[in-house]
Amino acid sequence: MAAVAALPVSLSGRFKGSFAYFTVKDRLPQILTRVIDTLHRHKNEFFEEHGEKGVEAEKRAISFLSKLRNELQTDKPVTPLEDELPDAALWNQYLDYQRNLSNGNGEPSWFQSPWLYVECYLYRRIHAALAQNPPIDNFDVFKEGKAQNFFESQEAVIALCTYFQELLKNIKDLEEKQLQEELFKLLQVSLWGNKCDLSFSAGEDSSQKSSPLQSLENMIPYILVNDMENLWSLLVNSKKRNTEKSNVRVDIILDNAGFELVSDLVLADFLLSSKLADEVHFHGKSIPWYVSDTTKHDFNWTIKQLQSANHMWMSRCGINWEGNLKKGVWVYRDHMFWTLPHDFSSMAEVAPDLYADLQKSNLLLFKGDLNYRKLTGDRKWEYTVPFHQALNKFHPAPLCSLRTLKSDTQVGLKPGQGEQIQASEPEWMVSGKYGVVQFDAAL
Fold first, then answer.
1. How far from chain centre, in Å, is Cα 219?
2. Chain centroid, CA 402 distance in Å
3. Looking at the chain, which terminus has fewer C-beta neighbours within 10 angstroms, N or C?
4. How far is residue 299's CA from residue 301's CA, in Å, rounded to a whole number?
5. What string of H, E and C letters represents the secondary structure of 278-342?
6. Burial status of residue 5 (CB atoms within 10 A of its CB: 0-12, 13-18, 19 or more)
7. What pLDDT, in 10s, does the model give residues 412-433?
């Protein structure tokens, strides 16, 4: 058997001048500062709701987070979690694993360890700061930003809901070629909707202001890997193969709340309405994560906001989507694994129940940059390495990444393609200007 090539090195803050270095040095402390500021601003609310206990809890959480910010900025060793939350043991085992990896070259620390690990660890520690301090333990420090992103994207949401409801009026009469065109449009809206990422802008405004459909044609050249045809063939063939007995199931592993989530919901509704799929399973985060990631609360809140909107097509979308959930043709799930530091090649071992569930799907759509980093192990891959290889044996079902590039890992490019862009745009991998619709057919 051919020798298995060693995996390339993990992206890390130890590479000075890299995007990981810049993130750990500047962006992560900024995010912590915003979280502390958010808690300060809610002090009166905590007092009104919980009295002195609320204020005491807020002080404790802030002191916990200030200490965390100091550890980060001075490159202190990563410490074991001290809370009793259900995933704490898994996190501490992962820290041991990182210690073993370092081969005695010092303790895992903020700048020396893999970027993916320390960044995930930061969000888990932010969660602990609140979870360990009742009565404010259920407060989502990122909730306001997510809601603001949704409201600031109103015009784009209206444009998309209107377009979609008009499409539904004659979806039954569309020929196959037209259906394919509509699928490709909505895949692109969902792809570029991923630009609205608050952790990427360290929480600054990143809402979708313009109509998302107008500029699609102009954006095609920026899709570096475009496997939309493969998705179409897969869905059409699954439909033909499946008899009445078995449903075609598509899973969407969600990324950001706000406009991006609405674009994912429209895509999911299209899959059902066009009969390309019979059920859609959504996977969100079980704790607040990466500033703007979708939690169960965000998912339900978004549908409620649409339902109660005083815009006919927005509310029609919200009402239909609530109906899909009630009928069970849409299912929302959140598994602890999505907020662990492990890349997805460990899923079969660490979360066999989740892996087994994903194996039942006909197609997995992974949204966004963090999912791409976890799919490919967040490593310094050569641009031309095949996507299938970078997945490192993670093949539960056919899968596709819809991702705008916001970190410096990218595989599956044509020879010279990455170098050519790099020559004119040194920031191409982190600007959110380029995207991929990258497919892997599983085994």
1. 21
2. 10
3. N
4. 6
5. CEEEEEEECCCCCCCECEHHHHHHHHHHHHCCCCHHHHHHHHHHHHHHHHCCEEEEECHHHHCCC
6. exposed
7. 999 999 999 999 999 999 999 9
Please give the torsion angle defined by the CA atoms of residues 74, 373, 219 and 149, in that order, rounded to the nearest 10 degrees: -60
Q: Which of 284, 259, 271, 258 is nearest to 370 (CA)?
A: 284
Find tokens 């704490």 and name the residue.
88
- For 137, the 3-state DSSP assignment is coil
> Which tokens sit at 111?
């700048």
Q: Beta partners for 367?
A: 402
Token pair for residue 402? 């819809």
pLDDT of residue 209: 75
Residues of the chain with pLDDT under 70: 1-5, 196-204, 206, 243-245
Measured CA to CA, the distance from residue 183 to residue 191 in angstroms comes to: 12
Tell me which amino acid residue 3 is: A
Let me know if 48 is exposed, middle or buried by CB neighbors in 10 A (0-12, 13-18, 19+): exposed
Q: What pairing do the DSSP bridges indicate for beta strands 399-404 and 435-440?
A: antiparallel
pLDDT at 135: 98
The answer to whether 141 and 126 have CB atoms below 8 angstroms apart is yes
The reported pLDDT for the residue numbered 237 is 94
The sign of the torsion formed by the CA atoms of 32, 38, 41, 45 equals negative
Residue type, 126: I
Residues 6+ apart with CB under 8 A from 285: 254, 293, 294, 295, 334, 338, 339
**Residues 417, 429: contact at Cβ < 8 Å?**
no
Asked if 292 contacts 199 with a C-beta cutoff of 8 angstroms, the reply is yes
pTM, to two decimals? 0.97
Other C-beta atoms lying within 10 Å of the C-beta of residue 41: 10
The helix (H) or strand (E) run that includes residue 254 is: none
Q: How far is it, in rounded angstroms, from Cα 263 to Cα 374? A: 22
- Amino acid identity for residue 321 in this structure: W
**Alpha carbon 390 to chain centroid distance?**
19
Q: Which amino acid is at 329?
A: V
Q: Computed from CA positions of residues 234, 274, 405, 10, in that sequence, does the dihedral angle turn out positive or negative?
A: negative
pLDDT value at residue 284: 99
Give tens-digit pLDDT for 268-311: 999 999 999 999 999 999 999 999 999 999 999 999 999 999 99
d(CA 261, CA 298): 9
Instruction: Say which amino acid occupies 64.
Output: F
Tokens representing 274? 């066009």
Biggest alpha carbon distance in the chain?
67
Q: Which residues touch 432 (CB under 8 Å, ≥6 apart)? A: 195, 197, 200, 404, 405, 406
